[in-house]
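JOB MANIFEST
job_type = single_chain_structure
chain_count = 1
residues = 64
[input]
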Amino acid sequence: MGGCPKCGFGHYGARYVYGSKAYQYARSQKPWFDKRMSAYENQLLAEIAKTNQVAKQQRGTSLF
C-alpha cells in the first residue's frame, strides 16, 4: 500500500498538494462509500418521517 490516500497515485507531491495531513486521511476518516450511504439513509429517513407526518394530518382532518 502506498501513495496518496486522496488520489491513489504515487507519493511525490501529495504533501505539497494536499498538506501535511494528506497521509492521515485514510486512518482518520470513514471510507467515502460509507459516508455517502449514511447521508443517503438520513435523507430517506427524513423524507419518510415528513411523508408520514403529512399523512397523519390528512387522516386526522378527513371526514371518513
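[summary]
The chain has two domains: 1-29, 31-64.
The longest helix spans residues 32-61.
exit_status = 0
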